Amino acid sequence: MVEKKLSLKLLKEKYVVCRLNENDKIPNWIMKSDFFSITRTLDELSIVCNQENIPDDIICEKDWRILKIEGPLDFSLIGILASISTILARKKISIFAISTYDTDYILIKDKDINNAIETLVNDNYEVIK
After folding, report:
1. Distance between CA atoms of 125 and 118, rounded to whole angstroms?
2. CB atoms within 10 A of CB 107
3. Domains of the chain (ranges, CATH numbers)
4. Exposure winner among 18, 27, 48, 90, fewest CB in 10 A?
5. In this predicted model, what pLDDT tens digit does every residue of 7-31 receive, in sequence order?
6. Which pLDDT band holds residue 48 (cuts at 50, 70, 90)?
7. Is 129 helix (H, G, I), strand (E, B) or coil?
8. Is the peptide bond before 55 cis (omega within 30 degrees of 0)?
9. Strands annotated E in 22-85
10. Nearest residue to 10 via CA among 108, 94, 122
């Protein structure tokens, strides 16, 4: 019997990756999202949140789904994202990754999500829908 590697959970909503200017304030509309991530750099303000909350004038990439690696994951674990991204890259599936203190989230375009899930399951990952 082959042992499962890790469990991933597919979040139900569609998400968006937004780009704002580096000096923009964090907008209130992201607070309506059940999941959001904010990253500010010297060059930009990047926000990931529910797709339904985005004003029309925001530069964004829509139609992302999220696979959450069930955690919490220990900081000593090595190669989790590398392994998953390599498996998906072989199938030409692009990802956008977000890491938090407890776990990792892998964003995959909605058009590729079924292929990604099938690919991961075939490589002994468990995917919970």
Report:
1. 10
2. 21
3. 7-128 (3.30.2130.10)
4. 90
5. 999 999 999 999 999 999 999 999 9
6. very high
7. coil
8. no
9. 37-40, 44-50, 59-69
10. 108
